[in-house]
Design a protein that fits this description.
Number of helices: 34
Distance between the termini: 110 Å
Number of strands: 14
Radius of gyration: 47 Å
Structural class: alpha+beta
Mean pLDDT: 74
Low-confidence stretches: 1-18, 135-222, 250-310, 319-326, 825-830
Strand order of the largest sheet: 2-3-10-9
Strand content: 5-15%
Helix content: 40-55%
Shape: elongated
Length: 835
């Protein structure tokens, strides 16, 4: 056992020396340059120079293996054609395309960064000095190493791809550490991660500590080792950082006071790797640029690997890194497509399209005419960047049997070409992602519903990052979709993302403004904008004329003859396009709105010659409905019977069938009214009322009463009274009229029924006078009073009795004449009318 333990100790002590060091060569594609990064640990001296067809980078120490297997996973071969390690190690060869050159620098953390840029190199570039191709073990001149390490790769005032930021994505360095190399550090700090593009920010010097006098240190009995000093400095810096995050209280510790329970809890949140702990010195202030709670930079893995072997991390750092490392997912838990896969703005550069297209096509096939998947996808991406969806799909079809990003690129091409993608495509269910996938998921959908879960912030953010020509291409339709679900705020954000770009935007922004005004109910302002777009006679004119006519139809206004003529011209011009049918429909309905019904039906019949469609049936229904509502009696009868073959009652909307049948009943066309109502009219109460009315018009009161059976509404009771009157059942009719609230009609029915008591209450003044003068009402009082009245009359003389009889006859005649005058030539009610 002792021998085994000793063996293990020796092994762990020397394992690091026995295992060969391997450096993974990482890569990243950017708009203006392609980047390679090597991270030797520990940092080493290096040199780079020209060889035949490219460059060779050599490290200052031997025995290092270069892993280049994943270099082309995330970059194209537009600038870098090949990257290969030198067989014996410690060097790599980089083959670059014609017209490209390389520069290099070393970051503060010791990483070696190589940028390959299109264009000519600087005349004084040290990396253009030819070197002989060398295997590891050959001597590298020390002056070459020194010059390359101190090389100036560009003026500070004009940071290029090699000028790296001190911050990236709002995440700062854990600390400002100096590189542990023999050369002076480059003043620019490099943040690199594969597939992630950084913003260029000028590095700032954090400045000296505010209270250096308070930092005391015992004199060492022997010279301090550099690794120990480095570790101590880094530890102090990290403890200061933890103080800014509220996790420790160094001031209390400096006075020797015991920490409070809360302070102790905070200190427990500070972790020091490898079990090492140091006591914080008092008075150490944090970097003045640091912010409480600021997460560590993504380069912390490299920074933490400094030579002291100490790794310091707070709980806030851990939480921040945990959030950064967690992939975005949908509400259902599916992984979201990342921003890198959808960075369409980076799929082309500022050079002319023809030049980039020629380069991309030339790289399609490699050695032995074998297609290159990366080149195929690069060409497709180039087409997509410039909005050519059909061409991108053609590229994928031509080389569809090789692996790559074909499905994703085809989906984007479909969105560009057809306005939507597949319901089960790559973006399915990603509308709530916090990445660029949210925008493409909305664009891939055929429509949006109010209940859809959408990440509006990510959608607007991604849309704002699209190239301007794609924003203009997608903007109007995307804005319309959000207006359709009541999100005018998002629609306005889309509009603003286009409007704030420099230059004239033409009808695109005006169209979105018009739709926003319509959504607000400002029809006058919207129609004015739409007429301006129509007058420009540009690509947006068809949509503008559709909206302008539709707005007028919705509010029941007439359409100006000028717009009618423009609709006619555009309908003819676009008759073979996708918008052609909509323009034909707008033209027909615009003619009807101008009460030119004859021309409207003529245009509809001409349109149907090219084949009947669902849209034509809907247009015919809308035209007949407008005729029923606004056409004169003469126009209605003429146009209806000329064109009734265009109307299918079975497919016609109920609203149209009722409006048209009512107008036909008014004119006495009961049979045609029944045909329009259809066989299912009995299934609705309104339909039964119309059938009952038709029966009354045809003098079929029994049929009318059957249709009204069981109905108790006002209209039904009134029509029931009409039917009962036709059958001579006047007393029942009077009760039905009274139930419908028609007292006058109830009184008239009571008169015909001889119900004088009801007439005295409900009848007209003349009817009540006749009843009273003729003594039709029973006399109130007992028989004795009646006998006394008769005796009094008998006691009169003959002459007096005759005079009394004449007076009574004269009063009765006046009452009857008044009754005849009241009803003569007056039709008080149209049987079967539905109000």
């Amino acid at each position: 056992m002792r021998f085994l333990a000793a063996t293990l100790v020796v092994w762990f002590c020397f394992a690091g020396g026995l295992l060969a060091e391997t450096i993974i060569v990482r890569s990243g594609e950017h708009r203006d340059f392609t980047r390679l990064v090597l991270e030797p640990d520990p940092p080493t001296e290096w040199t780079m120079g020209r060889i035949d067809g490219g460059y060779e980078l050599r490290l200052g120490r031997a025995g290092v293996l270069m892993d280049t297997a994943r270099v082309f996973d995330k970059i194209s071969r537009k600038r870098i054609l090949a990257v290969s390690p030198v067989q014996a190690g410690s060097a790599i060869r980089i083959s670059v395309a014609d017209g490209s050159h390389a520069t290099a620098f070393q970051t503060a953390a010791g990483a070696i960064v190589i940028d390959v840029v299109s264009g000519k190199p600087r005349d004084d570039s040290p990396f253009e000095r030819p070197v002989a191709s060398t295997e590891v073990g050959n001597e590298v001149p020390a002056e070459d190493v020194e010059e390359a390490a101190h090389a100036d790769v560009g003026p500070a005032a004009e940071p290029g791809p090699s000028a790296m930021p001190a911050t990236a994505g709002g995440i700062a360095f854990l600390t400002d550490m100096k590189p542990r190399t023999t050369q002076e550090p480059d003043p620019r700090l490099a943040l690199y991660r594969a597939g992630q593009e950084e913003a260029v920010v000028e590095a700032e010097d954090p400045g000296p500590l505010e209270n250096p006098a308070e930092i005391t240190e015992a004199e060492p009995s022997e010279p301090r080792r550099p690794r120990v000093a480095d570790a101590e400095a880094d530890l102090l810096a990290q403890l200061a950082r933890a103080a800014t995050q509220g996790l420790i209280d160094p001031a209390a510790a400096s006075k020797g006071a015991s920490a409070s329970p809360a302070s102790a809890d905070r200190q427990a949140d500070v972790g020091i790797g490898m079990g090492m702990a140091e006591t914080a010195r008092s008075g150490v202030d944090a970097d003045p640029e640091a912010r409480p709670g600021e997460p560590p930079d993504r380069l912390s893995d490299s920074i933490d690997a400094f030579r002291s072997g100490v790794r310091v991390e707070t709980s806030i750092d851990r939480e921040a890194l945990s959030r950064l490392d967690t992939p975005a997912v949908t509400a259902e838990g599916r992984a979201c497509l990342g921003n890198d896969a959808l960075a369409i703005s980076d799929w082309a550069d500022e050079r002319p399209f023809a030049l980039q297209l020629a380069e991309a096509r030339a790289a399609l096939v490699g050695e032995f005419d074998i297609p290159v998947p990366e080149a195929r996808d690069h060409l497709a991406r180039l087409y997509l960047h410039f909005g050519f969806g059909a061409e991108a799909m053609a590229v994928q079809r031509a080389f569809g049997d090789i692996p790559g990003d074909g499905p994703l690129l085809n989906e984007i091409a479909s969105i560009l070409e057809e306005g939507h993608g597949s319901p089960t495509g790559p973006f399915s269910g990603m509308a709530d992602c916090d990445t660029a996938a949210s925008l493409w998921a909305v664009l891939a959908a055929t429509r949006l519903d109010p209940g859809d879960t959408l990440n509006h912030g990510a959608i607007l953010r991604t849309f704002s990052g699209l190239p301007l020509h794609l924003r203009r291409q997608f903007g109007v339709e995307l804005s319309n979709r959000f207006l359709g679900i009541g999100r005018a705020d998002v629609a306005r954000g889309i509009r603003d993302a286009i409007a704030r770009a420099p230059g004239e935007h033409g009808a695109t922004v005006s169209m979105m403004d018009a739709r926003l005004e319509l959504a607000r109910g400002e029809t006058d302002a919207a129609e004015e904008l739409l007429e301006d777009i129509v007058s420009e006679d540009g690509p947006m004119s068809p949509e503008a004329i559709l909206l302008a006519i539709g707005s007028r139809l919705d509010r029941g206004a007439a359409v100006e003859p000028r717009l009618v003529e423009v609709a006619s011209v555009l309908a003819f011009e676009h008759r073979g396009s996708a918008v052609g049918p909509d323009l034909s429909r707008a033209h027909v309905l615009a003619l009807a709105a101008d009460e030119r019904f004859a021309e409207a039906f003529q245009e509809l019949k001409h349109w149907r010659k090219f084949g009947a469609t669902r849209l034509q049936e809907e247009t015919a229904s809308a035209l007949f409905l407008r005729l029923a509502r606004f056409g004169s009696d003469e126009e209605l009868i003429t146009r209806y019977f000329e064109n009734h073959d265009l109307l299918d009652p079975v497919a016609a909307p109920v609203e149209l069938r009722l409006a048209l049948s009512e107008r036909l009943l008014d004119q006495g066309f009961t049979e045609e009214a029944r045909r329009v109502l259809g066989s299912d009219a009995e299934e609705t109460e309104t339909g039964r009322l119309f059938l009952a009315r038709a029966a009354l018009v045809d003098f079929e009161p029994g049929a009318a009463l059957r249709h009204l059976a069981g109905m108790t509404g006002v209209a039904a009771m009134r029509m029931r009274g009409d039917g009962l009157s036709r059958l001579g059942r006047h007393k029942e009719a009077s009760a039905a009229y009274l139930a419908a609230g028609e007292e006058a009609m109830a009184g008239s029915a009571a008169w015909r029924a001889g119900d004088w008591t009801q007439v005295a209450t409900l009848g007209s003044d003349a009817e009540r006078a006749v009843v009273q003068d003729l003594g039709l009402l029973p006399v109130a009082g007992d028989s004795t009073s009646a006998s006394a009245a008769r005796a009094e009359t008998a006691a009169l003389g003959t002459l007096a009795r005759d005079r009394a009889l004449l007076d009574s006859s004269r009063e009765a005649r006046k009452a009857l004449e008044a009754l005849l005058d009241e009803t003569s030539g007056v039709l008080t009610h149209s049987p079967g009318a539905v109000e």
